[in-house]
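Pasting as-is:
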Amino acid sequence: MLGFNVKDLQSVFPSINNLSSQNILNLVPDRIDRWNNFASGPSNWFKDHWLYPPYKTDTLDFDFDQALKKDWINPADLSKVFSLQEMMILNIVFGSYDLNQFFEKLEKENPEAFVWYKIFMNFWHYSHMKNKSDEYDLFCETLESIKKLKPLLPDFELRLTWADSWQPNNLCFHDRDLWLDSEMGLLIYYKNKHVLTFGFSIGNRCLYYSQAQLRQKKGNRFLFNLSWSVLEWGIKILEAAFVGWPIYLVTGESAAAAIKKCYAKCPEKFKPETEDRIKNLYNSNLNFYRRNKDKEPRHCWSREYILLEALDEESNKRKRNDVPQYQEHQAMV
């Protein structure tokens, strides 16, 4: 099976409970001494190991934190002194461009570390957080929530994937024939066969749900085993893992418009019936949730998102009586 098993993620990042941003660096308290011990060679050491040497390269009298922030230090050398977890902490605090490049190279050789980096990229694209301490705590919380992702139904398996490189949507890293409309993706397997993809992105303690896509158009008999519509199944999975986090659902019009842009060089391949199908899917009636149109919609990366709210039990009963539970499934099989 393709994708990353969330069970392989380790809990290695301690929470700091919203202390000031400077206190994050207390998680790497001896960073300056450790670096100075490593760099205490001859004076020409700097010329060989610094990416962009400052004006004075013949002295150790420099500010390590400032040097890291300005990308003077080679990340390959940092990896000889600090663990990957410590390097991620430094990256969260200083936002080093070259550290980002370093973590991108880990995509194949260390997918777990790349998941850490991809979570951080979600924040960059979708959260706009100013307090580094809050960002670090959110990072820890997100990591633990991802580990709780499950398909919620027997006979199904779930694997985590992501959009390739740093971009907020791109080809799937694990399956080059699959496009992700989001930062993160869930590959759903039924009897060891990839049958469905869910796509979502992570904001400031909220999720942006933008993709529910069958792997093939016909032969999807597994749909009769579902307790929810395909669209709501993805919501249920995210809701169970990211407890208490608001979920925003993409609108059909904005999803269709964003996908249509991907066909700019061959617009004839994006057929009107495809556009209608996308709109109908993401605007379809929900049995267990409602779109809260009283709240201001959010706009992220050419898409519009509407806040979802769970219906109470009485509303669920009325909704299920009005709309047959398997109506959508029958139309998709």
